[in-house]
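[09:14] KT: can someone run the structure on this one? pasting the chain below
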Amino acid sequence: MFNSILIDSSGFANKAQVILSPNFDNRPNKSNISLIVIHNISLPPGIYGGDNIIDLFTNKLNPDKHAYFESISNLKVSSHFLIRRNGSLIQFVSCLDRAWHAGESSWNKENNCNDFSIGIELEGSDNDAFESEQYRCLQELIQSIVYHYPIKGIAGHSDIAPSRKTDPGPYFEWDKIKSIFKDLMYKH
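[09:31] RB: done, structure tokens below
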């Protein structure tokens, strides 16, 4: 293996801090993991750091902490991975399980992307550039995922749910990961 992130047989990355989310279920077909979906998230929007993203993915977000949280505190969502601004990696759901990150979505005429994708959240927003440390971690993580699973494509959340989502946003530099996926399907 050519990078330091390894995914074990239970679907967990060795370099990730594991914080388990209750928001997941079984994939209908564990062998059909074929897509990586890139997202961005910040809570409150545009504010980085703290535990608000973790609290959202673990159903502990306090709606009284910020006015924006009132509208999202009851959501049951998760992602497989979160890459913080400093490049640190958190894993919430095993790659073998279905995280709830994509919502209503479609890729290559196949609906319900949660069934067959791995979701990676980058701490960020549509309005800011991502950090070089995030790209380094993302590159290593993607290489490991591709090594372990039959990935056929990579897409932004905006590609699989274009009428409702805009992430990872205009500041995401697709060229920084394209070399890893030179033989796979792109939307960019």
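[09:33] KT: thanks! The radius of gyration is 15 Å.
[09:34] RB: yep, looked fine to me
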